[in-house]
Design brief:
binds nicotinamide-adenine-dinucleotide, single chain
């Protein structure tokens, strides 16, 4: 696949529809049309909030939601098919071969060399060489249909996450996917509907939920040190210009989304940990969102500075505003700011601020203020809290995670996935979390396309958020 293509398939995958409407036009017409009961293409601009509430419609095909999030029968030895072994998939493979009670028995990638590399890692770790599926973009369907597997785990480009998860579940396998699980509301519902109908897990693997600082913050929250949590700020602030323009890896697909989509394209790293602190889907839920994007300059300027006159990449145009800010209000009235900022020169950041009635945690650098404990009006370094408040997962797995990706958090998430499947426990992040966090992608695009108007979140739990218990403080 060429990295600088603007062919029909590439544009369709990135959000252009067959009529030639660009995604912003589509979202505007589509959102307004929903309110009128049909997509007429001539929405009344005054339809305002009612129109945007249409995004929250529950599909009629769903049955009643379950009383408890799924806990599937325990699987003593988890057989895994891995789909997409590029940068992130290979990192997961390296983790999984070190975890007891699981084996990668099948690998699928459109690039044979990537699949062979993953198979070598599995074999070098002392496991039998996995079966390879390298027959093209839909060969994952064959893997899902014919391989004896318990779990299909994918780290493919975004457009494949939903087709792979659905194929896995339809064939009786549990599914796990890299982030975001989906980027349209329709696909979020498709994951929920398929998981409920098939009785299979569909986990979104949000590694930042397992970050050391994020879990320290969650410990403080669970022990009441920050009081009642009222507000959080988070995001994904990462200069990806070089990666988006590369002729390999994410450069082959990630930039495409910036051609046509304007909103928060990657919300889950920031939102995952603060959603846990705020008991989202387990006592509260995301209710409404407003979103605003800055102008788009960064990618155009980077191309102009790095490619010669006449190069195809210099001619590309981008819809994605360089900095997108969205505000979410929860059903209980709490507030969350979530940023997406990937096209400008800047150091890495996820903000990671959680604020309650008695104190505040803030990342970059990690610091804490707790009234009555911290010196008055002064930050304390979060480092000084680890002795007393380190999360049990980090107490148990810190050594084992050394050398694993993203400071060890990637190992912890893979470890927990396998453990929950082996013990028949509910997963740390279930399909409702996958849907609610991923929904921010299209909801932010709809809000931006409609002058930052408020958009309602679908309630993927259909009211069960009031009953489901908060994520407990889990151990290893
Ligand atoms: N959690 C994190 O910290 C983190 C970090 C990086 C990437 N990611 C996510 O991981 C996913 C992959 O990102 P990456 O950086 O590894 O990208 P990548 O381009 O390096 O890897 C993607 C792999 O998928 C393969 N592939 C593409 N289409 C396929 C198909 N239809 N069937 C099978 N294989 C296919 C490619 O050949 C490649 O090997 C994305 O969803 C991304 O958002 C998450």
């Amino acid at each position: 696949m060429k990295s600088d293509r603007k062919d029909t398939a590439g544009r369709a995958a990135a959000g252009f529809d067959a009529t030639g409407l660009d995604r912003r036009d589509f979202l505007k017409v589509g959102a307004l049309g929903v309110a009128a009961g049909a997509v007429t293409g001539c929405g009344d601009p005054g339809a305002g909030q009612d129109a945007l509430a249409g995004a929250a419609t529950v599909p009629g095909t769903l049955t009643a939601p379950p009383d408890h999030p799924l806990a599937a029968p325990a699987i003593d030895h988890v057989r895994i098919g891995y789909v997409g072994v590029g940068g992130m998939g290979t990192a997961h493979v390296r983790n999984l071969v070190r975890i007891d009670g699981c084996a990668i028995t099948a690998v699928c990638d459109i690039r044979e060399a990537h699949a062979e590399r993953a198979a070598d890692i599995v074999e070098e770790a002392g496991h039998p060489r996995p079966a390879l599926y390298t027959g093209g973009e839909t060969d994952f369907e064959r893997l899902c249909a014919e391989a004896d597997l318990d779990l299909v785990y994918n780290a493919t480009p975004w457009r494949w996450h939903v087709p792979i998860c659905v194929a896995a579940m339809e064939n009786g396998k549990h599914a796990a996917t890299e982030v975001p699980a989906a980027y349209t509301l329709e696909d979020c519902w498709k994951l929920v509907e398929t998981a409920e109908r098939t009785g299979r897990h569909c986990a979104m693997m949000e590694n930042v939920n397992y970050g050391r600082a994020e879990l320290l913050c969650l410990s403080l929250v669970r022990q009441g040190l920050l009081g009642e949590i009222l507000h959080a700020e988070c995001g994904y602030l990462h200069d990806l210009r070089g990666i988006k323009f590369a002729d390999e890896g994410e450069g082959l697909w990630r930039r495409d989304h910036s051609w046509t989509r304007n909103g928060n394209l990657y919300p889950t790293h920031g939102l995952g940990p603060v959603a846990n602190c705020m008991d989202i889907n387990r006592g509260d839920r995301f209710a409404t969102l407003v979103s605003m994007s800055s102008p788009s300059r960064g990618l155009q300027e980077w191309a102009a500075a790095n490619y010669p006159e006449g190069h195809a990449k210099r001619a590309e145009t981008f819809a994605l505003g360089d900095v997108n800010g969205s505000l979410i209000q929860t059903a209980l009235g709490k507030t969350i700011y979530v940023a997406h900022d990937t096209n400008l020169p800047r150091p890495y950041d996820r903000i990671n601020k959680v604020q309650g009635t008695r104190g505040i945690f803030q990342g970059y650098p990690d610091r804490v203020y707790i009234e009555g404990r911290s010196p008055s009006h002064r930050w304390e370094e979060a480092e000084t809290y680890y002795d007393e408040f380190e999360h049990p997962l980090w107490q148990a797995l810190r050594e084992a995670s050394i050398g694993a990706g993203h400071g060890g958090m990637d190992f912890m998430e893979d470890y927990r996935l396998v453990k929950c499947l082996r013990e028949g426990l509910p997963l740390d992040m279930n399909v409702y979390d996958a849907a609610a966090l991923s929904a921010v992608c299209e909801l932010s695009e709809i809000s931006v396309a409609n002058g930052s108007a408020p958009v309602e979140f679908p309630d993927f739990t259909r009211g069960k958020w009031r009953e489901w218990a908060p994520w407990p403080v889990v151990g290893a």
